[in-house]
């Protein structure tokens, strides 16, 4: 009987300059899929109803929480981009590579996917277990591309804590999802059109 040869897969660290758009998209969709699965499993292990966690609220107050925090964070991000040297906010070119040539509909899809998957895991599951402070530390560590510089790492922590705060105040996961979506969408579109002009 013949032995079948299976291809060998080797996982290795890739530097930002080695990434292609295709490889970056595969990585994005893989990690977000994994994030979604871990979030769902964690919520179910907490013996909570997933449909209740994701239930749409019967009031529109969550819109004010989500849109309000998004506006504050975008203004702060704009101020930081003028005050802080560009190299201190560098993410290794990942966001540039991800959004610069992307069609608008794809930027919308990416922003929505990331917002739902990350908020389900971090606010919906992890924050329920360990609270907003430790969740925000974990959220900052997960965004590893910023860890080389303390300013963006601190900004990710503060942003995460804000998302956790509006989740508690609004009582619905849709407030941080909306906020996260708006921030990623505006940032992605800014990169897309800044580089396209």
Feature tags:
197 residues; mainly alpha; 7 helices; 72% helix; globular
Structure report:
The mean pLDDT is 87. By secondary structure, the chain is mostly helical. The relative contact order is 0.16. The chain has helices at residues 21-45, 50-53, 61-83, 94-99, 104-142, 150-170, 174-196. The termini are far apart. It contains seven helices and no strands. It is globular, with a radius of gyration of 18 Å. α3 packs parallel to α7, α5 (104-142) packs across α6 (150-170) and α6 runs antiparallel to α7.
Summarize the main sheet. Answer: none
Query: Helix count, per DSSP?
Result: 7
Protein structure class:
mainly alpha
Helix coverage percent: over 70%
Q: What is the H/E order?
A: HHHHHHH
Give the N-terminus to C-terminus distance in angstroms: 62 Å
Gross morphology is globular
Q: Averaged pLDDT, please?
A: 87
User: Ranges with pLDDT <50 over ≥5 residues?
Assistant: none
Number of strands: 0
Alpha carbon gyration radius: 18 Å
């Amino acid at each position: 009987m013949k032995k079948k040869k299976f291809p060998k897969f080797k996982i290795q660290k890739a530097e930002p300059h080695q990434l292609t758009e295709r490889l970056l998209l595969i990585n994005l969709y893989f990690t977000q899929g994994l994030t979604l699965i871990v979030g769902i499993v964690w919520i179910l292990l907490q013996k909570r109803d997933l449909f209740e966690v994701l239930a749409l609220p019967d009031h529109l107050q969550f819109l004010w929480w989500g849109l309000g925090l998004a506006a504050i964070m975008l203004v702060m991000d704009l101020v930081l981009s003028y005050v802080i040297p560009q190299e201190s906010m560098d993410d290794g070119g990942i966001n540039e590579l991800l959004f610069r040539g992307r069609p608008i509909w794809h930027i919308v899809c990416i922003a929505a996917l990331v917002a739902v998957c990350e908020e389900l895991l971090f606010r919906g599951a992890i924050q329920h277990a360990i609270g907003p402070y430790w969740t925000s530390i974990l959220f900052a560590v997960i965004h590893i591309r910023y860890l080389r510089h303390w300013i963006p790492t601190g900004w990710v922590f503060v942003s995460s804590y804000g998302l956790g705060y509006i989740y508690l105040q609004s009582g619905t996961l849709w407030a941080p999802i909306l906020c996260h979506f708006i921030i990623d969408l505006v940032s992605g579109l800014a990169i897309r059109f800044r580089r396209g002009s």
